[in-house]
Amino acid sequence: MIIYLATDHAGFALKEKVKKFLIDSGYTVEDCGAHTLNPDDDYPDFIRIAAEAVSKCEQEKKETGDLSRACRAIIFGGSGQGEAMVANRIKRVRAVVYYGEPSVALAKDEEPKLSIIKLSREHNDANILSIGARFMSEKKALQAIDLWLTTSFSEEERHKRRIDNIG
Predict the structure, then answer these.
(1) Rounded to the nearest 10 degrees, what angle do helices 115-122 and 138-150 cross at?
(2) What is the distance of C-alpha 89 from the center of its chain?
(3) Which of 50, 60, 107, 114 is most buried per CB count within 10 Å?
(4) CB of 112 closer than 8 Å to CB of 106
(5) What percent of the chain has pLDDT over 90?
(6) Fold of the CATH domain 2-166
(7) Which own/partner contact pairs does 96-105 have at CB distance under 8 Å and 24+ positions apart?
(8) Closest-CA residue to 49 (of 4, 110, 17, 2)
């Protein structure tokens, strides 16, 4: 699986740590930028490159039926929100934002189990994970990314139908 990475200055340090983690874990990584820390850069310039690569991969996978052509992207920003907005403008992209578990899980005296990460893959077949770098420790980000990359889409018909309705 190819993992595309993209960020602006706000997520640059975390992206570099994640890149090392992914390479050490055996993934093929394509870094779409930023390649240097520049406080004046603009996230759409980098995020669009990663999202278009995922879109192309999804199209090729659909045309050939070759599931080994799988790829995903992990994008970073201060909150991850704007980055996901850019990515989701690209056809065949399903980007989700993550910066931690909701407090509702804690209100029920439950341990957070990264349920949003799992559900984004199992139910939504998310192909881009947008990390809010200003809200995540390196440890939490790596834990979430590992779970996200190793969680499969459920293939349930109702989820397929809903994804098809997205367009």
Answers:
(1) 30
(2) 15
(3) 50
(4) yes
(5) 80
(6) Ribose 5-phosphate Isomerase B; Chain: A, (3.40.1400)
(7) 96/120, 96/124, 96/126, 96/128, 96/129, 96/130, 97/130, 97/132, 98/129, 98/130, 98/131, 98/132, 98/136, 98/144, 98/148, 99/131, 99/132, 99/134, 99/135, 99/136, 100/135, 100/136, 100/140
(8) 4
Residues forming the active site: 83, 123
Per residue in 102-123, pLDDT tens?
665 555 555 556 688 999 999 9
31 three-class SS: strand
pTM value? Answer: 0.92
Contact indicator for 57, 30 with CB cutoff of 8 Å? no
Residue with tokens 């949003």: 116
